[in-house]
Predict the 3D structure of the following.
Amino acid sequence: MTVEKLDKGLGVLAEIKKQKNILDLANSKQAKICLYDNNHQLDIDDQDNQLLKALLVKNVSKKIFELEKEFNNL
C-alpha cells in the first residue's frame, strides 16, 4: 500500500468514525433535532422530531455505507 493510499484510508476511517458518532446521537432517545431559520430556533413537536431523526439516520447510514465501500476499494 502506498503512502497516498494509507493517508486516504486513514482519512476515510476518521470520517466513518465521525459519521458513526452522529448515528449514535441520532439514535439516542434524549436527542432532539433543532432547526433554525434566520438564527431563530423553530418549534418541532415530538412526531416531527422522530421523522427528522429517522431521516438523519437514513442519510448517515447511507454515507457510512459509501465510505466503507470506498475504503474497501483502496
In short: The longest helix spans residues 46-72. The CA atoms of residues 51 and 62 lie 17 Å apart.
